[in-house]
Write a structure and sequence with these properties.
Radius of gyration: 27 Å
Structural class: alpha+beta
Strand content: 15-25%
Shape: globular
Largest sheet: 7 strands, mixed
Number of helices: 20
Helix content: 25-40%
């Protein structure tokens, strides 16, 4: 049988790009699952503008047996014509109320911008669609014909706004690069945003759409299997993964639905493949939430990456079993197992010879018995792991779904691990990029890497992608070569936007979530995205009585408390006593603090100031020894706009006081050297303050006592 290529597939099957307002610079998102996190990387350009993240697409060839043959690139014998269609359907869509697959908890949805009732008028005013753009060749870029710049909001009215959704480029081998919008959001008539997800009259410039390609080889043209791209909000903590990723969600869906017969054989659990990512994410989140820092951070008893503890966790030996069992009990049950537990308990009650237990439960709660059981489950699970809000938070406070749980598959792996039914496996080694992998592994690795960078919950509504990707009907499981691909509408078939004035969960699940087309993946996300990210925070924002600022919504994308640039500077000063450096290490600040000027608050200020706040990235430091832990890298809030760094007398005061340590035991010459160095630091601050003044940076608003109260 021939090994010639008969099938062409585009990868990743779902690519993730991110908006940014830098006009010159961008970077390519991770393309390998274990791609190393850049240290000291700049995510903003020299002007302080956020770089866009591009999604790169490639074409791979397979033979008629479905075996991988090679990557196909543009050459003298092969021509690749890419075709991309981006759209933003948020304003024409239905409101997001909650995930519509929560059974009795799901809510009906009315239309966004329901005052526009005529369907043709809705399409004209509310659908932002630039149509199809095509590109061919190597290193093609910076041409108007490659830009998605013809989309409009409120077309044909005095309020019409042009909306740029992105552009196409190719690399040196003719691979496709998709870049998204600039992070611009507006209302058509100047109205103020009032809610986290459904702001009437508003649009943003995130988008999603189809990626297609025609491959011409020696004069014969083949149509490649299409893919989807989603242009999402910025990642404010790049390289940090969620405890549950979208890859976990999809993998769990395929397990529960027995796709490829995966459920017919025993679940094989490896510590470093299946368990370690959960623990490592809890530890990494110390860089974006001070509650995680206290519980899982450096030198905490539950720092799961500390070598001695990690060795015990990775060991299947019986002496580690009490530790494994204790940790396993700290994780809340997944939704499916929570429901099964409730059914089992209700059956026990119904079979009881005496009605004493039933009478007692009825005295405790006037709610129906099933509701009472849900309440008991919520109470028992509220302090369990992972410490994130769930899909039902804010709508059904007493539901077990108010807290995020692991997927069922993750939980079953954790159960196997707790019982010693696992192998250790190998700690995955970081790789520099996709080219470090065996080429036959690259296609799936591309899809996996992109989905690993998307949060898998909570979906209220979400950051990058949302709840309906856990619906089997969304996936093309009939594809024997690769089932982790979405069902995509034919090119000549339009997306359906209207399912009646009210969208019920029943209609939505039956009719709306079966295929993907331009604008469908992001249409239920918050409009604009900034109001959602400025609203969804952590525990103490909602209940100041909490000891720690947990749970969190999306700390790995929208940080809560962070280690600042100033703290990094002081930690890096090895002349300071180690305990003083540790004080700076412990000092975590509110990530949204710069957006609390005036009376607007972060929800509104995020719309225009999102590019000025910091990005939490990994930085190297002079090592610090904390107990058993040697700290050489830190997650640090970096690249904060200079407006928020200048004219800070408190920082100068601290420098003055810390300079006293330089005089201990110093000679006259040493004291002079110290003074010169100290004066150099102050001079640098003076220069920054002066540059800010001459650069006409507006002063920060200082609140009076009356304004504060």
């Amino acid at each position: 049988m021939s090994n010639s290529i008969t099938q062409y597939y585009i990868y990743p099957a779902i690519g993730i790009a991110r908006v940014g307002n830098s006009e010159e610079e961008f970077y390519i998102g991770p393309e390998a699952p274990e791609q190393e996190i850049p240290i000291n990387f700049k995510y903003k350009d020299a002007k302080g503008k956020v770089k866009r993240q591009a999604a790169r697409f490639r074409i791979y060839g397979f033979n008629e047996r479905g075996d991988f043959v090679e990557e196909v690139t543009d050459s003298s014998k092969v021509k690749i014509e890419w075709e991309v269609h981006l759209a933003n359907r948020k304003a024409i869509n239905y409101q997001f109320n909650n995930a519509m697959d929560l059974g009795a908890l799901s809510k009906d949805c009315t239309l966004r911008n329901g005052d526009v009732t005529d369907l043709k008028e809705r399409e004209q005013k509310l659908l932002i669609d630039s149509g199809i753009r095509k590109i061919q060749g190597c290193e093609e870029r910076n041409k108007t014909k490659y830009q998605f710049d013809s989309g409009k909001f409120y077309t044909g009215t005095a309020f019409q706004r042009d909306v740029y959704l992105g552009e196409l480029q190719t690399d040196e081998k003719g691979r496709l690069l998709v870049l998204g919008g600039r992070g611009e959001s507006n209302s058509f008539d100047g109205r103020v945003a009032t809610t986290f997800a459904n702001n009437e009259g508003w649009h943003d410039d995130v988008s999603d759409g189809t990626v297609r390609a025609n491959v011409t080889v020696d004069g014969t043209t083949y149509v490649a299997k299409p893919a989807m791209v989603a242009v999402t909000p910025p990642n404010f903590a790049p390289g940090m993964r969620g405890v549950v990723t979208m890859y976990d969600v999809v993998k769990d869906l395929f397990y529960r639905e027995n796709v490829n017969g995966v459920k017919d054989k025993a679940l094989d659990t490896q510590f470093y493949r299946d368990i370690y990512p959960i623990f490592n994410s809890l530890v990494d989140n110390q860089g974006v939430n001070s509650g995680f820092y206290m519980m899982f951070g450096d030198n905490a008893p539950a720092n799961f990456t500390e070598p001695e503890l990690l060795a015990r966790l990775a060991s299947p030996q019986t002496e580690s079993e009490p530790l494994r069992q204790s940790l396993f009990k700290q994780f809340r049950l997944p939704a499916e197992l929570t429901k099964k537990q409730r059914i089992d308990e209700l059956e026990k009650i119904s079979k009881a010879e005496s009605g004493e237990l039933l009478d007692r439960l009825n005295r405790i709660s006037s709610k129906p018995l099933d509701d009472a059981m849900k309440y008991v489950q919520f109470e028992s699970q509220a302090d369990q792991l992972p410490p994130f809000y769930g899909d039902a938070y804010g709508d059904y406070q007493n539901s077990p779904l108010a807290g995020l749980s692991l997927t069922q598959t993750q939980y079953l792996h954790l159960e196997n691990w707790s019982n010693g039914d696992f192998s250790q496996g190998q700690l995955p080694e970081s790789v520099s990029g996709l080219d470090s992998l065996d080429i036959a592994c690259q296609p799936h690795a591309l899809t996996k890497a992109n989905l690993l960078e998307c949060l898998g919950g909570p979906f209220h509504p979400g950051i990058e992608l949302t709840w309906f990707l856990r619906r089997l009907s969304m996936w093309d499981i009939s594809d024997d070569l690769d089932k982790m691909r979405l069902n995509i509408l034919p090119e000549d078939q339009a997306v359906q936007d209207f399912y009646g004035p009210i969208l019920t969960p029943e209609v939505a699940l039956e009719s709306m979530f079966n295929t993907s087309g331009p604008g469908t993946l992001t249409r239920f996300l918050g409009v604009p995205w900034q109001t959602d990210e400025g609203s969804c925070r952590s525990g103490q924002d909602y209940d100041p009585a909490y000891y720690l600022p947990t749970p969190s919504f999306w700390s790995a994308r929208v940080p809560n408390q962070v280690l600042s640039q100033r703290s990094l500077e002081r930690i890096s000063d090895t002349r300071l006593p180690e305990l003083q450096r540790i004080k700076h290490f412990d000092y975590r600040q509110d990530w949204l603090r710069f957006l609390r000027e005036g009376s607007q608050g972060p929800r509104i200020a995020m719309i225009t100031e999102w590019d000025k706040i910091g990005i939490v990235s990994k930085h190297s430091i002079p090592p610090i020894k904390l107990g058993k832990t040697d700290i050489k890298t830190l997650w640090v809030e970096s690249e904060v706009n200079e407006k928020y760094l200048v004219n800070d007398p408190s920082y100068r005061q601290m420098l003055h006081m810390e300079s006293l340590v330089y005089f201990e035991g110093a000679t006259e010459q040493g004291i002079k050297s110290v003074r010169d160095d100290f004066n150099k630091q102050l001079k640098q601050l003076d220069q920054e303050d002066l540059a800010a003044k001459e650069g006409h940076i507006p002063p920060r608003k200082i609140k009076t006592r009356d304004e504060l109260l």
